[in-house]
Amino acid sequence: MTGEERVTATGKRIGRVAREYATQQAREAANGKPEAPAAPRSPVPAGARSAALPPRGTPIIEVEDIGKSYGRVIALREVTTSVKAGEVTCVLGDNGAGKSTFIKILAGAHQHTEGRFVVDGEERHLSNPRDALALGIATVYQDLAVVPLMPVWRNFFLGSEPVKGIWPARRMDIEFMKQTTRKELLAMGIDLRDVDQPIGTLSGGERQCVAIARAVYFGARVLILDEPTAALGVKQSGVVLRYIAKARERGLGVVFITHNPHHAYPVGDRFMLLRRGRSMGDFPKSGLSLADLTSMMAGGAELESLAHELERSMGASSDVVEELMADVEGEKR
Amino acid sequence: MTATAVADERLARVSPVNRALKRPEVGALIAALAIFVFFAVTTDTFATPAGASTWLQTSSTIGIMAVAVALLMIGGEFDLSAGVMTGFTGLVVGVLTTQYGLNIWVAVLVSLALALCVGFVNGLLVIKTGLPSFIVTLGTFFVLQGIDVAGTKTLIGQVAIQGMKKVPYYDQPHAIFGSTISIGDLALRVSVLWWIAVAAVATWILLRTRVGNWIFAVGGAAHSSRQVGVPVGNTKIGLFMATAGCGWLVGMLLLFNTSTVQAGTGVSQEFIYIICAVVGGCLMTGGYGSAIGAAFGALIYGMANQGIVYAGWDSNWLKAFLGAMLLIAVLLNEWVRKRAEETR
């Protein structure tokens, strides 16, 4: 069993859930059931967004001292943070810091081996991505899962196409698909000229945003974004950041994974730093400046603790310690 | 939301003609019209009802297969066994009825079941092994070709089916697969109607149904489609089975039209189908193309095939013509794809 095959199976299951929902959705529309503009839609029978988004600031996901080991290898340990409705939790860390292990736990692709994983106040053990999706936790991976040659609207509903009519005349509800795509993208602040254009003609940032809008439409309450700005230029990154802010405004909880503090700081409400599989702390924005964040990313905290350690053993007046302290201060500025 | 109702002001108004020019099949349509006009002007018989019924018939059997192969190609796969399948299915019916006295309808259904099995095996091998379908179906192509010739010789001692017309109830399937409908002077083979029906259904499936969406997706980006829950394996296996099913249909059309079938029927036709699909706008790499375009591609083939005869040229020119068409089409399609994929 390779990892790829596992993804295949779970991908199929996710699709099935979403498809069933889409069919039901289309049927309701066909029955002329009036659709309130604010009516939340959910692909999830358990009723993720149908229970409406919780009020701003309500914790949706809380993790406490969560950890993951593969046999003897400890990939992640003692990580504590929370994701609240209407807030952006940034997960920062360098390559190999454990970011992907952490999001795979949140996304249900891996199970945690230590600590508590609480969703809506209830402790959970997610066994696959479908479980996560059923709780309204959707992940947008870096490759975005779009088909470049297909029009935007076909991509938006791919795998979950709403249908109408009775077999053999059952067909996609194209009008509904096009309108919804346009409407949902507009709600995310993406104003497309033409939803009929192949998605490959969109810029990288726009494609990212379509993937985000798709996850939101299909019932996400928590969006996990895996390095959405990593492959983008400065301007495109700005576009994506604006959509992250937009998702927050809509009341979603967002987990934003990045290694760039300059991307994280403007949109983040809470910052969790990872280093070598350990959490370096979980800070609300009020307790942290961009300089703090940057210096922590650059190893400032380690430097600081080293300085304090030396201070204890060598005395504050030591030249070495004084120099180190100056360095730490300098990094913070 | 008002913005959804009105056309976006940033889009220049595009005339229906310009919009149509962007469809993948438009090149084939224009080429077909040009070839029709050319032979209609240069030869006497081409545009007469008698002439038309001949080239329509040629186009129809090729066209049914080209449409199926086009769907498969959009789904990102090839089927080289498609040609020999048309002979294989006919031979199965012929041998079972003339040699073993099986009821003709049962034989027809057995033949369909066998064809679908071969399609299923083709699809399953491609999905499970991850090998290119080109190699897998090249294998089934040769296996079927061997069975066709050796099997037929062993079972009936010759390489062609004889005595089909004496089989009880021959008239019934003949009416469905081999009859001729006269409309004025035009003697229309029923295979032409099958061709139109297959092209129409395939186009509808491709553009209007969920399965059609999946066909484009699995050919365009299989991994991404899998991530969003498209049943990639089932879609591809279904396409292989549909191609084999169309092979069976054409096998029946050929058998009941001529009341005989040779052991070598269909061999080397598989490339003609692929050429028609590509001329019709399908990308060799999958994810883009048109079913109706493949039908136009087959029409081009049928008209050129017959037109060259009416014009009194050496019929080998057909090959050169097909090759040139293929090259032009591939270049055109590549250009279309690059334009569609390029980032603005």
- Please tell me how large the radius of gyration of chain B is: 21 Å
Largest interface: A-B, 43 and 35 residues
The CATH topology name of the largest domain in chain A reads Rossmann fold
Q: Class of chain B in CATH? A: Mainly Alpha
Q: How many runs of DSSP E, i.e. beta strands of chain A?
A: 12
Strand order of the largest sheet of chain A: 6-9-10-3-11-12
The average pLDDT value of chain B, as a whole number, equals 90
Q: Quick one: biggest sheet of chain A?
A: 6 strands, mixed
Question: Which assembly state applies to the chains in this document?
Answer: heterodimer
Alpha-carbon distance between the two ends of chain A = 51 Å
Write down the overall mean pLDDT of chain A. Answer: 78
Q: How many helical elements of chain A?
A: 11
- What's the CATH architecture name of the largest domain in chain A? 3-Layer(aba) Sandwich
Secondary structure class of chain B reads: mainly alpha
Which fold name fills CATH's third level, the topology of chain B? ABC transporter involved in vitamin B12 uptake, BtuC
Number of helices, counting only DSSP H or I runs of 4 residues or more of chain B: 15
Q: Strands, helices and their partners?
A:
The complex is a heterodimer of chains A (333) and B (344).
Chain A: H1 3-30, E1 59-70, E2 73-84, E3 88-93, H2 99-107, E4 114-119, E5 122-123, H3 129-134, E6 137-140, H4 152-156, E7 163-164, E8 171-172, H5 174-187, H6 204-217, E9 222-226, H7 234-249, E10 253-258, H8 261-267, E11 270-275, E12 278-284, H9 290-297, H10 300-314, H11 319-332
Parallel strand pairs in A: 3-10, 3-11, 6-9, 9-10
Antiparallel strand pairs in A: 1-2, 1-4, 4-5, 7-8, 11-12
Chain B: H1 2-5, H2 16-21, H3 26-42, H4 49-74, H5 82-98, H6 104-129, H7 133-156, H8 171-177, E1 180-183, E2 186-189, H9 190-208, H10 210-220, H11 222-227, H12 232-258, H13 270-279, H14 291-310, H15 317-341
Antiparallel strand pairs in B: 1-2
